[in-house]
Amino acid sequence: MSVNSLILRNLKKNIKNYYLYVFALAFSSALYFAFVTLQYDPSMDEVSGSVKGGAGIKAASVLLIAIVTVFLVYANNIFIKRRSKEIGLFQLIGMTKNKIFRILTAENFLLYFGSVTIGIFIGFATSKLILMILFKVTSVDDIAKLQFSIEALVQTIIVFAIIYLVIMLMNFIFIKKQSILSLFHVKSSAEGRVKRVSLWEIIIGILGITLIVTGYYVSSKLFSGDFVTMNSLAAAMIFILASVIIGTYLFYRGSVTFVSNLIRKSKGGYLNINEVLSLSSIMFRMKSNSLLLTVITTVSALAIGLLSLSYISYYSAEKSAHDSALTDYYFTNHEDAEVFKTALDDRSILYKEREIEVIQADFDMTDVVEVKTEDSNMTDTSSMVTPVISEQSIEGVNLKEDETLFSGYADIMDQFMSFKAGGDVTLKTKENDLALQFLGTNKESVVPFHFTAGGVPTAIVDDSVFQQLKENYDPEIQIDSMIYIGMDLEDDNDLEKAEELYSSFKFNHHNVSQLDMSKKYKLIYGLTMFIVGFLGLTFLITSGCILYFKQMDEGEEEKGNYTILRKLGFTQFDLLKGIQAKQLFNFGIPLVLGLFHSYFAVQSGWFLFGNELWTPMIMVMCVYTVLYSIFGILSVLYYKKVIKESL
Amino acid sequence: MKILEANKIHKSYGNKFNKQEVLKGLDIAINQGEFVSIMGASGSGKTTLLNVLSSIDRVSTGSITIEGKEMTGMKEKQLAEFRKHYLGFIFQDYNLLDTLTVKENILLPLSIKKVSKKEANQRFEGIARELGILELQDKYPNEISGGQKQRTSAARAFIHEPSIIFADEPTGALDSKSASDLLNKLSELKRNRKATIIMVTHDPVAASYCDRVIFIKDGQIYTQINKGDEERKNFFKDIMKTQGILGGVQNER
User: Fold this and answer.
1) Which SUPFAM superfamilies match (chain B) (predicted)?
2) What residues of A are in contact with residue B108 (Cβ under 8 Å)?
3) What residues make up the domain containing B229?
């Protein structure tokens, strides 16, 4: 038999084992090619021009390479170990190591570049689809059309060729290092031997769980006002990360063993088949994979967390735009407003108008404000610039001459300061100071972010006080405008027409269209979500594959056990039920842990990103869980085959 | 009383064009409480016979009944059910699960039968004490010696009180001291529990502990000898003699 036919036969024999590898490789090369194509595509300018989308996509493609390289190197390691016997056999019949290496290289070459070629074709075919998805999430109205990009092709081929060389180098080192004897034994030495549960492991186990719980606890306290300076906040975040990641590692290293051992002990040696297959096997195997599992869990948590946060931002884009603009349109200048109003009237578009005079004034709030942060620019409570409006601008507010109410108090402010329920404040005009009684705060914002520096509450005062202020305000602290003219369309169906009008004018002063703003938000968050989403998907598929490959190996190793159990009279169905329980743990533990990690991460700071937590987060988590479960199900199917063949 | 009866069992491997007949019409009957060993040269079909009798493999033609139940027509699921109630196994390479302790390994067959925990513990203590492995109960298989492993395996075979125990070269991997220990224990268990044991071996010493030895050659029964009231030593000599004839003929060919 010639070497060539040997290669082909090996390939044929192994292709069944490799189908997921081929799939993952094709998928990642397809995605990489599509990303690179997008990068070179002229129609991306609209997305990239405004928010540096090109840079984002470029960064994503670099990350993609990192994920794919790690995956391929890891998968290759699993495969070469599996074939060590074969390599040993070749050596035994007198083949040189170099020749074996050449055979392996050729074999891998066919498999690898076959998959990459398939991937590039799929990538080209789907890059239009991907672009359409991108346009859809970023609400860009453009027709997705793509040309085949030679640059993208060349770049993809170069990158994957380099990864191939890395893999070959690893194989070369592996083969060089092995002797014939050790090749025959490599499989059995790869997994840790069964050992008694030691006291040390119990300690590690308890420590692992404690660290994770501590990390969670601190994360829930992160933004509740216990950490007030930037430094302590950063320290707390680093602490959470370290404690959760180390905790996760120790969890796999000891806690799983420890907990399953406790359960076993409680059974007094009388285990049923599910426990035999799941508990006893996981107990010893999770430990040897603890580093891998920690990485998978942490990166899954990161992916789910980032995806949730970007989805929360995206989901809240309209609400955020509404919060910062308040009305469909607003202007800060009478001329601009008049131009737009006339245009609206001409088209007979009905709208409600509100006009509010806003004056920035200096307050002494020493009596009512408690500052939590030590950052210097926020601490001076005796001189705080605050927008002031008259009670007459707001419906349903009636204040006495010496009273003031603060409206539009943002949650984020809690981080830095808190208001007391009542007290005295001093409004400083240019000439005299007015003592006012502070009635408290409410959340409803009354003027757009433009006037409130993004979250400072607005002081509402009696009209007489306001008139005094108007006479005597300090011009130094005013912003570019002192008037807010808001317009709300009566009929939302007119929005499109109004938007068309709005964009046809060129205004001289600051003005905002809420629709335009929410589109801008959506563009940014949509692009982020798009990139994080596809990276997350790649990671999910590659890590799912690695877990699956591990399970394939485990299945082969445990085949002997299934033979014994079937001889003892367990049916295939009994065994399969046990395997399902086992896979529930094998795939479920990293998944649940990852979900918990990301839940606590998102929970601690989600309000910085948007105003809806549950819907976006749960959707992301469900999608992740479903996709992830596919690999669990595939592995059960593989086990089914192993069990069937075991007798 | 006959507990196992096999009539004209044939077993062949391979396809239509390349057929290898391993069993060529064997008839075997085993009585309740008998300790029978099957001997023969390598490739004579003794392991195939054991597999077929113990329902792990299927016969091509012929019938096998255990306790009056015909096994040959049973479906996979019924066979598993059958094994769990009527059969016990001891193997040359022990076939213990590495990840389970001695006690857990031994109790495995009971967990399928849903025996109560209390009764399971009682039975475990009984059998483990008889086999002298009670103090090993919390050890893992890789922490005990080959002889102890094989006794664990034997305990697992006996614990659910099966009708027949099949032993495939149980002494094959043991040194002579452990082997004779095990065989003494097996004989003892057989007497105390009135168990039926069918053992495949090519070790005449092991065979000499049995009540009856069946010799197989080329897929057929060559002869069989009974121990009767003889001493074990004499019986051993008989076995050696028979084996000599059996082997001699083979070598001349």
Assistant:
1) P-loop containing nucleoside triphosphate hydrolases
2) 271, 276, 565, 568
3) 2-252
